[in-house]
Amino acid sequence: MKLQEIINKFELKALTHVEDREITGVYISDMLSDVMSSAQAGNLWLTIQTHKNIVSAANLIDISAVIVTNGKQVLGDTIELANRFHVVILTSPLSNFELATKFIQAGIK
Amino acid sequence: MQEQQCSHHWEMTNVHPGFIITEKCFKCNKTSTYFSAEDSPPLEEYREGEHFWNVMGSAQSVRFDLKCKNCNTLVPLKELAGMMMCTGCDEKCKVDKLMCDLEKERTWVYVAFGFRPPEETVPLSPEKIAIIEDYFNWRRGSTTSKIKIVSSDMIDDFDTCYAEVIKDIGLLSLTPVE
Ligand SMILES: [Zn+2]
Ligand SMILES: [Zn+2]
User: Which value does ipTM take for this structure?
Assistant: First the structure.
């Protein structure tokens, strides 16, 4: 499934520019070190972390989009950095669990 | 002669979560960092020869080696303390200049750094840095963007650098590895 389709279908809000691309699955973690060791390129990364250094981890692995869950607010400097490095940041009011459940129901794993 | 050129295909191996501990000696003001794989990092002040080390901070991190899945060559990366993404914080910095040059081609610059103090720890070799770069570019598999990894030797002043370090701060519990 493509990123734009996911954004529409799951009512995600884009905080950055979106470049549409194919997604390769979902990775859930609040640890940047996990992302560095285990996430795959093209994954959607679900997290409650909002610090600027999420951009650093997401960009290293070429994550398709970071989805900040629980409706957590993402600060302007994180968004600014993400735009500069073409990292997509989306938000959802749902928790990691609720959003992941919806993904599984839609056949995304 | 059997030795054929292997076009290495690197994979992560010996992946261990742990902590990067930063300490400062209150006598000589030296900063020291090291990796601890213990469940909870030591937080007490201790004496080591002339030094009186005080823990200044700890960040969860991951230690790993790389291994070629074709020829089994193992590249131990015990010297690697972490990586950070250059955000262009200092126009005069050589890494910043490199980033500005490469940004147009969508090549993002990361800095690999070793442990401190540099004069008392084993530095990361350029060969190893090139292998880490190869590994991450292969794993990204992207045709539209790339990463370039450079040594922290390129940075004039590590303490005033605002690169974004890939680390987890403030999480003090660690799930033991099976
Ligand atoms: Zn090989
Ligand atoms: Zn000392």
Answer: 0.94
